[in-house]
Amino acid sequence: MSDRYGVFGNPVGHSRSPAIHAAFAAACHQDLVYEAILAPLDGFAASVRAFVEAGGCGANVTLPFKPEACRLATRLTSRARLAGAVNTLSFDGQEWLGDNTDGAGLLRDLAHNLGCPIAGMRVLLLGAGGAARGVLGPLLEAGPRRLVIANRTEARAHELAARMASAGEVSGCSHAQLAGQSFDLLINATSASLAGAPLPLPDGLFASGSLAYDMMYGDGQTPFLRLAGRCGAARLADGLGMLVEQAAEAFCLWRGVRPATAPVLAMLRSAGRDTGGQ
Ligand code: ATR
Question: For atom 27 of ligand 1, which residue has the closest CA?
Answer without folding.
Answer: 192
